UPF0260 protein DI396_02670 (Litorivita pollutaquae), 156 residues
Amino acid sequence: MTDPIDRSGLRERYWETQRPDRMTQKEWEALCDGCGKCCLNKLEDEDSGEVALTRVACRLLDDESCKCSQYPIRHQFVPECIVLSPKNLDQHAYWMPQTCAYRLIWEGKPLYEWHPLITGDPESVHRAGVSMRGRTVPEFEVHEDEWENHIIEEPI
Ligand code: SF4
Ligand code: SF4
C-alpha cells in the first residue's frame, strides 16, 4: 500500500541521531506512525495530571485510514487541533499516546519495531494492532459525560 506520508530519501535512522529541532520538516513529519491515536478525545485528571485516552474520536478522524479527513482545512472545523512541532513538543508530549513516536523521542526511548520508518511498510502499525483502525466511536454519538465509559488501556 502507498504510504500516505512521504518517507523517501530520509537519512538512515535519523531519529536516533538528530534532535527534533535539527530534523528537516520531512523528517519530522515522517515520525508519525499513522496510528490515529492523537485524534482521540482524552480525559485529564486535573489533580494528578493523568491522561486517559478514549476511543471516542474527533469528528474528522477517518477510522479506516486513521487519518484526518480534512487535514488541510481542519481548523475550520476543529480550531483547537494542535500543530505539533519541535518547539511545542515539551508542552504536548505528556498527553500524546504512549506509543507515539513524538512522545517516545521526547522521552529518549527507541521507536517500536513495527514503526513504518523501520519496517518500510505503512500497514505495519495496523498489523501490530496499535492503531485505531476500526476501533473508534464518533464523538457525535457519545455525550462527553459518557466518555469515561470508553477509556482504552495503553499501549494498545
Ligand atoms: S499518535 Fe503520534 S504517531 Fe500516532 S498518529 Fe498521532 S502523531 Fe502520529
Ligand atoms: S482535526 Fe483532524 S488532525 Fe485534528 S484531532 Fe481531528 S482528526 Fe485529528
